[in-house]
Each structure stands twice: as structure tokens, then as C-alpha cells.
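Subject: two folds for Thursday's group meeting

Dear M.,

Sorry for the delay on this. The cluster queue was jammed most of the week, so I only got both jobs back this morning. I'm pasting them in the order they finished. Each block is the input sequence followed by the predicted C-alpha cells. Could you check whether the formatting survives your parser before we put anything on slides? The first protein is the one we discussed after the seminar.
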Amino acid sequence: MTILRDIQQVFSRYKILALLLAIAAIWSFFTWQSDGAFLTSRNFANLLRQMAITGMLASGMVFVIIAGEIDLSVGSLLGLLGGVAAVLDTSFHLPVALNFAIVLALGLLLGLFNGYWVAYLRVPSFIVGLAGMLIFRGILLAVTNGSTIAIESEGFVAFGQSYLPVVAGYVLGAALFVLQGVLMWRSRANRQRYQLAVPPLWQEAVKLIVIGLIIGGFVEALNSYEGIPLPVLIMLVILGGFSFLARNTVFGRRIYAVGSNLEATRLSGVNTRLVKMALFGLMGLMCALAGLTNTARMAAGSPSSGNMGELDAIASCFIGGTSMRGGSGTVLGAIIGALIMASLDNGMSMLSVESYWQMIVKGSILLLAVWIDVMSGSSER
């Protein structure tokens, strides 16, 4: 019980630090086993581009889980929307902007459709997601005729394969560092204004320096290849926007309240059904964005796209510290969880690990993450 209590304290107080240490251990192992090939600039860029797709799904999934629900249809919906985009490009030759607008709107509508079944018709989200997994995959097979559809538009392909110019990457890194410093200063000032405890100034200075080193290393590693991939930039924008939504908006607070105590939140006057439906709509929007990115990255729409994507998204959330009981979790944790999942996929593929072992490892990590969450909750009670 002492060891269990120590594990619970580490993950509850230092979740992000523990996840970063886990990433460092994974990267060190694969770098050692691959004779340094794992952390080359080229593979690092490919790793982050791969992570961005899972991260988009995880960014929407984390809010669904926080609200006490689950969505098993995201992998199939990603594949369907990516396939629709490929058909619109190849068969109808739509402009890229119009194509993207149609696919994003369709993703939002299908997400709201799922949410309506869950929130208003009171069908368990597990069943709605399971049905959606089958329905969307079947529609995808019908849309693509079971064959891969190559993308013809160069602008479409550039969405998933282009890079930021090197100078723009350095400017972005500097801007992120300055923004982090401003946010830390404002947080410290607000806590002092309300006479709350604040950490020592040197401690926050060290934290800012560490963050600066991480940002600098991140930008330098990518710029030494071809620059920051566009999907990674989009993922950073989603991370910032969704983190702001969760922490600084009324809607964000309602998400956590719905997951923590649904009945009390409803009695306080919050339209809990509308909140849940909106979250599924947001999940559908992220599926559309991930589907567009995946299709552009592969330069083709495939009937197998998004297969098992729901596993990676859900595992990313749980590994990142999201509680399966609802009411707790962060977007940053889910993104780091997605990075862990992508690192395992990339590293094991590089080492030519058999696919069945890859599935066993990922499933075991998911089981371990949920076990830690359950035991942490038990120890708190």
C-alpha cells in the first residue's frame, strides 16, 4: 500500500512531470535500440506529424471523457470524413477551401447527431459509439468502393505535408516562450492580489528556463530537417485554444461540473444535455480535422483509414491523466499521452516489432493507466 500511495501521489501532484519522464525513458530506449536512428531530425518530424493526428482526436475525446461519456466511433468517423474529402477532390474537383468547409461541417453535424442520441434520447454513449463505428465504416466502404482514392490537388496534399519556413519556426518558438512568461507572471500577480500562496520566484524562474529549453530544442530539432510540420502547428493551436476553453470560460467549467456531479449541475440551472451534445459536436469537428490531415499526409483516402484510432485517442487521454470517472483531465495531458502512443508506434515499427506485439504493448499500457486511475480513486476514498 505504501508503494501504491507513492505512485498515486506522483501522478496526482506531478502528472505532467511523470509523463515527460516516461517519454524520456521511451525515447532513450528506442534511440539505444536503433543506434541513434530514432531521434534523428527526420524521424522526429515524422513522429510529431503522426502524433498530431492522434492528438486532434484526443483533444476532443478528453472533453467527452471528462463529461462522463465515451465515443468509440472516432476512428471510423475520421476515415469516413477523410474518404469524403478524397472523393470531393478527385471526382468533383472542388476547391480545397470549399472541400475543407464541407467536410468540417459534415463532421460537426455527425458529431451533433451522436450527441443527440446520447444527451436527448438517453442511449448510452458506449452503444452510440459502437453503432457509429460500424455505420461510419460501412458508409466509408460504400463511398470509396473499397479502394484507395489518390488526391489530385497539390494544395490539399500540402495541408498534411508542408513545413513552416525555418525563420518562422524560430519566431514561433520565441513567441511561445514570451507567451508562457506572460501567463506565468499574470498567474503569479493574480494569486498575490487575492493573497493566495505563491511559489518562490526562483522556482518559477527555473520552470520558465526549463520550458524555454524544451521549446528551443523542439524548434531546433525540427528546423534542422525541413521546419515545423503544418499539422504540428495546427495541433499547437488546438492545444492553446482548448486549454483556454477549459480553464477560462464558463463552458469549460460546465464540462468539468457535468462530469463531477451531473445531477447537481442540472439542478443549478445548467442545460447538461446541451453541454453533452456540444461536446460530441466538437468531437466530430476534431474527427473532420484529423481526417483531412490524415488524407493529406497519405495523399490518398483509404477505406482502412482511422482503423483503431479510437483506441489511440482513448488511451492517450487515460495515459495523460484523464479520469475514467469523469470530472478530471487536461488537454495538455491528453496531447502528451498521444505523444507517448505515437512514440511507441514509431519506435516499435522502426525496430520491426511484430504487429501483434505492438497491440499487446499498447493494450497493456492502457490497462495500466486505467488501473492507476482506479487505485488512485480508491486510495482517495
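Second protein, same layout:
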Amino acid sequence: MKRLLLAGLVLFAACHAFAAAERWNILFIFADDWGRYASCYKGLDGRPTLNDVVQTPNIDRVARDGVIFKNAFVNAPSCTPCRSSLLSGRYFFNCNRGAILQGAIWDSSIPSFPLMLHDAGYQIGKSYKVWSPGKPVDAPIGGQQYAYEKSGRLPNRFSMNVTKMVAGGMTVEAAREKILDQVRGNFKAFLADQKPDHPWLYFFGPTTRIARGKKVRGRNCGASSPIR
């Protein structure tokens, strides 16, 4: 009986501690076609790579204060299936029509972690791409009802937008600041809507994708074709 009582007290204390634990805010950054290129990986590959010349001081700071994944693998080497897996926690082939790229349809009966966090009291928001190509666009985070993009959408297809601005006479530095101003503005708008004592999830998904019908290197590219 004493052992049962002790076990009960330990379980009660653990549950109380879990309930009282601080729930962290979550900033989720997922860029199109980024790959494993950041200067925090310099020297970890055992051979010369782009990480030797790429400079990413802000990402490096996150790495210093957190964890660098040295042996991580994508669940599916394709955009929408990969995101379906990421957002649902399932293997991509268990995501029904979310397991395909072109013509994907999100199955609303599949739980997604952003909406689960919302149900648990988190305030959620997103800018740009979370889940696509597919319909409804960004369905695993509630579509566009939690979108914060009023400050601008230049970070969406940013490589194409920067190229256009530079071709129009703007310096690379000025184009960069214009895009970053929109990033800051959208995030500040999200933070301004937050209620006190409520944790939040913000999903930032800039893309490098080109507009439908544009040509790159003489070939016609659809909306899902990246600039290489």
C-alpha cells in the first residue's frame, strides 16, 4: 500500500509539474530549396563544401544556442509529400492524397501539429508557404485565416523579386532591406495580435519559386519548379 501511495504521489507531482510547465513560443522557419547550406556546418562535412564560403551569422547563432543535426533525413524528397509528413507526423505515404506532388489534396481528417497547438491554446500565424502545391493551400495550418502578409509578399519568390529590383536599378543591399522590412512588418503584426500569457507558433515559409509560365534556361516551368 505504501508503494502504491508513493507511486500515486510521484505521478501526481509529475502531472502537476507538466501542467505548470512553461509552454514555449515556436518560430518555425522552412525555406524552399535551402538544403544544408549554412556556415555553422563548416568543417563538419569532412570535405570542402559550399558551407566553407556561405555566411549565415543569424543561423549560426541559433545553432550555437541549440542543436545542430548532423544525421537528419527528409521523409520524402519532394515538396508537398515532405511537408505533409512534417506537419502530420506521419510517413508521407500515410497522408492519402497529400502524399503526391501535383494534384495533392489535404485530408482534413488527418491531425496537423499547428492546428493541434491551436486547439491547445496556442495562437498561430504564418507568412507565405506552409503546405503547397495542393488544395486547400496551407490547409494544415488553417489555410489563409492565420496569414500575416499585409506588409508585403516580396519574400515569396524572393529570388525572382530581387532579380527584378536589381534589374530596375536597385542595389542588392537596398533590395535585401526592402524584403527584410516586409518580413519584420508581417512578424510585428503577428506579435501585435497576441494575447498576454498565450504561447504562439509562427511559421515563416519564404520561397524561391518562379511564377507559372515563366521560362528558365529555355524551358517552361510550372509553379512548383524551382530556380536552380
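Two things I noticed about the second structure. Helices lie at 2-20, 57-65, 79-88, 113-119, 158-167, 172-192. The domain at 24-220 is CATH 3.40.720.10 (Alkaline Phosphatase, subunit A).

Cheers,
T.
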